Each structure stands twice: as structure tokens, then as C-alpha cells.
């Protein structure tokens, strides 16, 4: 097995949870390295739908270690809740590890997230309001508090007091006090202390023993802080490259990057979305694809597959193979459109524009491809897919210059076609 990263190639919710869960059995360590509980990764375990927000999709394998990496921001109360929920479905979380240098989300970060959105008004980002942006802001401003700081009460308290000074303006009459937060976090710290590790040391030692890593990305390339549709992005690195600082691992050991893409496009939150469909097709994708946010329950915006954008993701995300999810949702749509080019003022725009103001006025140009009517949810081999579904996959591969290795035809773990087994063995 190669150390493999699974990253979102669109605006998140591509099915990273499903694909990571599917692949996790082959690896020794499954690690998140970025984001926080803005993520919502759905897996079906023992016939039950489980939503993971911090915890990697390998948690159900008791013999595999699941790490929350240093690049993450962690909401301890929500993490403890998530662990309790997992215990109810048979995952005891004894195989969880938490990087001591991951940053903590505090209640004032959540308040600030909400207030900042109100201030943005018509330029609201549509964040998950989990306090992600403010927590990463404190990290970059060097006034954040990390998991390992909880075990040094005196310095934790004095740093917390200074950190809270910066967020006084959002606290108002929220009732938040230094003492109450300090006491709550000390208590929660005790509950997670046994899981806390030096993630880099752990990963290096494991690699010396030949153990293999699955890096479970969060969000997607187009939500990346540098290469996404800024400012309508999240606050972290969403490509596999983030796993090096976000886990303290050697970047040269990231050996295969799987980019997950839906067979169409969705986006939650605001920001440009050239192929968004406000008509029947958008409504059909929303209904058939059950496109409602895993974390916030918001309806996702839906539209055709944007190949110009996907090609950009493959480049920026250094994607070696694609996993195409939700192909089953396109059944019955004929023709199926894919965007292959943008036009601006009558001129072709051959590459996905990085600057949002350049992207916003672009109009998508489509190619029409033949659809299929057959139910494909029970198909397990590429050869058994209808010819037009195979052509659809081939068109994506040719356009992006990247092979499709996995095709997902339903939410269940086994509703998966491995088209290129060599990539995952
Ligand atoms: P993630 O954030 O990338 O892990 O994706 P989410 O879990 O937020 O959203 C993906 C949704 O699509 C979840 O409800 C999955 O159960 C579902 N899903 C994943 N793959 C497929 C598929 O191939 N077909 C269908 N119909 N649903 C899928
Ligand atoms: P997973 O890992 C989809 C979006 C939000 C908003 C923007 C900024 O499940 O794919 P934030 O709360 O991060 O400051 O919000 O990013 N967003 C996601 N959209 N899937 C996610 O995660 C997302 N995480 C953040 O909707 O537009
Ligand atoms: Mg999600």
C-alpha cells in the first residue's frame, strides 16, 4: 500500500467520508490533518448512518489508530459528544489519538464567527458558524491555545486571559467568564489526556515499522485558504500538502493523492458557482442526491460537473487519481451536461480563474453527453456499467488527464466500483 491522501476536489461534501471509510481497512493509521468540526463526513457503519466531524473514518477498526492532527482546530465539547455518539454504535474510541499541538476552539470563537458574518452582511461567507475562522486567526496571530497547554494550568489560565482580551467585543452579555471557561477546559482536558500524543513522533515511529497512512482531508480544493474561491473559503489548507505540517510528516511520504469529486457539483455557503442550476436539474440533484449539509443541514446548491474547475483541482491538489461519487444520482438525466470552458466578453477562458472577481462574470460553456436510465446502484464492476456511464467517466479522465480509480454508486460502503485496483493495493 502507498501512503494515501483522500482530498475533496470541489467545494466539500464530495464523499470523503464514504471513500475514506471504504479504503481505511487497508491502512494502519487514519489521520485528519486540517479543519475542525466544520467538516461533516458521513459513513454507513453496520447499516447506520454516522456523521463524523473531527474523528477520522477509520475509527470503527479497533486495530487502527485514528489521529487528529496538529493542523486541526478542535472543539473539545463537541469532540467528547462525538466520542459518546460513536460509543453507542460500537466504536469505543480507545484507538483515538490527538496531537498535542492542535489548536482549541473556544466559545468566544463561535460567537465571533457569528458576529463576523453579521458584519459581512451581503458578503456573508455562509460559514458553518463553528468558530473555525476565529480559531485559525488566533493560531496565526500567535495567541491561540493548544491541546497540550491544558496540562499546564497556570500558564493556560494566563494565556487564556490574554486571548480573551482580543475577543471582548463579541462577548457582551454572553455570560462567558475566564473562570468558567478555564474550569470547563481543564475538566475536558482531563477526559482526553490519555489520547494526547506528539503526532509527528508517533507517525515517524510507525513508518519505521512499515505502517501505512491514510490521510483524510477535509473540505475541498476550492475551499482552500490559498487556492479556493477566496474569500469564500475556509481557513485551512485543504490539499494533501497540508498533511506535512498538519501531522508533522515528511511530505515526500505522501505517495498517492485521491481527489474526490461528485459526478456533478454542489456548494454550501455563498460564493461563485458558475455551473449552478436554478431550474429543474438543480432541484432534481438536490432531491435525488439528498443534498443537505451534514454539519448544518442547509440545502446545498447544485449544478452540472465543472470540468474546468476539476482540472484546476487536479493541478493544485496534485491529484493522482479521482474517485467519482454519486454517479447513481445522474441516472435518468439525459443529456448530461459538463462544463468544459468559460467565456468572458465573448472570449474563451481556458483555465479556471483564481481571482474571484475574474471568475464571477464568467459564463460556462457545456458539452452534452448521453445519459442512461438503468439503475446502477447494484453494479460492482466498471464493465457492467451502461455504455454511456462508461463514456461519461472516460470523458472526465480525458479532460482532466487523471484516471478515475474508484466509482461510487450509492452511500453504502460496498456500493463501490474499483476501476483501477492497482492504485489501492
Ligand atoms: P464528505 O464531507 O466529503 O465526507 O461528504 P458528506 O458526507 O458531507 O456528503 C456526502 C453525502 O453523499 C453523504 O450523505 C453520503 O452518505 C452520500 N454519498 C456518498 N457517496 C454516495 C454515492 O455514491 N451515491 C449516493 N447516492 N450518495 C452518496
Ligand atoms: P467537509 O469536510 C462543505 C464551507 C462553509 C462556508 C465556508 C467557510 O464535510 O467537506 P467555515 O465554517 O469553514 O469558516 O466556512 O466553507 N465549508 C464546507 N462546505 N463541506 C465542508 O466540509 C465544509 N467546511 C466548510 O459552508 O462556505
Ligand atoms: Mg461533508
Itemize the secondary structure elements and their pairings.
Elements: E1 4-8, H1 16-24, E2 29-32, E3 41-45, E4 48-52, E5 65-68, E6 73-74, H2 76-88, E7 96-99, E8 103-104, H3 107-120, H4 132-140, H5 153-165, H6 168-171, H7 178-192, E9 196-197, H8 199-208, E10 213-216, E11 256-262, E12 265-267, H9 280-288, E13 301-303, E14 305-306, H10 307-316, E15 321-325, E16 336-344, E17 347-349, H11 356-359, E18 363-369, H12 387-400, E19 404-408, E20 416-418
Parallel strand pairs: 1-10, 1-11, 2-5, 2-10, 5-7, 6-8, 7-9, 11-15, 14-16, 15-19
Antiparallel strand pairs: 3-4, 12-13, 16-17, 16-18, 19-20
Helix pairs in contact: 3-4, 5-7
The structure holds guanosine-5'-diphosphate, 6-O-phosphoryl inosine monophosphate and magnesium ion.
Brief write-up:
The protein has 425 residues and is an alpha/beta fold.
Could you characterize the architecture of this molecule?
This protein has about 425 residues and is α/β, with parallel strands linked by helices. It has 3 domains: about 5-10 and about 20-100 and about 195-255, Adenylosuccinate Synthetase, subunit A, domain 1 (Adenylosuccinate Synthetase, Chain A, domain 1), CATH 3.40.440.10; about 105-190, Adenylosuccinate Synthetase, subunit A, domain 2; about 260-425, Adenylosuccinate Synthetase, Chain A, domain 3, CATH 3.90.170. About 30% of the residues lie in helices and about 20% in strands. The chain contains 12 helices and 20 strands. The chain has helices at about 15-25, 75-90, 105-120, 130-140, 155-165, 170, 180-190, 200-210, 280-290, 305-315, 355-360, 385-400, and strands at about 5-10, 30, 40-45, 50, 65-70, 75, 95-100, 105, 195, 215, 255-260, 265, 300-305, 305, 320-325, 335-345, 345-350, 365-370, 405-410, 415-420. α3 (about 105-120) crosses α4 (about 130-140) and α5 packs across α7. The protein is globular, with a radius of gyration of 21 Å. The termini are close together. The mean pLDDT is about 95. Magnesium ion binds near residues 13 and 39. 6-O-phosphoryl inosine monophosphate binds near residues 8, 39, 218, 220 and 235.
